[in-house]
Amino acid sequence: MDEFFKSEGLVDGETRAKILKAAIDEIKMNTCKLACRQVEKILRIREEFGWQIHRLNAKEVFLRCGGDANEVSEKLVLVPSTNIVARFICKENIDPKPTIGTPSSAIVVATTNN
Question: Which PANTHER family match (predicted)?
Answer without folding.
Answer: ADENYLATE ISOPENTENYLTRANSFERASE 5, CHLOROPLASTIC (PTHR11088:SF74), TRNA DIMETHYLALLYLTRANSFERASE (PTHR11088)
